[in-house]
Amino acid sequence: QVQLVESGGGLVQAGGSLRLSCAASGRTLSRYAMGWFRQAPGKEREFVATISWSGITIYYADSAKGRFTIFRDNAKNTMYLQMNSLKPEDTAVYYCAARTTNVVPTTAAEYDYWGQGTQVTVSS
Predict the structure, then answer these.
(1) Where does the pLDDT of residue 27 fall: very low under 50, low under 70, confident under 90, or very high at 90 and above?
(2) Nearest alpha-carbon partner for 112 in 102, 122, 101, 124
(3) 31 exposure class (CB count in 10 Å sphere: 0-12, 13-18, 19+)
(4) Strand order in the sheet with 3-7
(5) Distance (Å, whole) CA 17 – CA 2
(6) CB neighbours (10 Å) of residue 51?
């Protein structure tokens, strides 16, 4: 079993930055693909970014390209999402997820483990 805990959310003005962290316990993450998803009120959970266990393969949603950066530190069992140039439409609960796989999943259904989420609110 893998336990994931997100942190780093908060309230920020449009144009600001936040760095989310996802800390894992229970298993080493070195063989897990990991991803970030978000869910706004009344909307379905949507893909944000994903990273392979090696950190070599990365995919972003179009909404995240050029503004968000996903990266991981396997030695610290932690994954991160650096979010810059935040917009009000980025407001959502952000979740991290993990799966033991050599591929890089981009849909929520492909992930086995989830954190509890961290709220990100961007004011205009």
Answers:
(1) confident
(2) 101
(3) middle
(4) 3-7, 18-25, 78-83, 68-73
(5) 28
(6) 23
DSSP, collapsed to helix, strand or coil, labels residue 107 as coil
- Helix or strand or coil: residue 48? strand
Per the document, the length of the chain is: 124
- Checking if the pLDDT of 30 tops 90, the result is no
- pLDDT on residue 9: 98
End-to-end CA distance of the chain: 40
29 pLDDT band, cuts 50/70/90, is: confident
CB 34, CB 47: distance < 8 Å = no
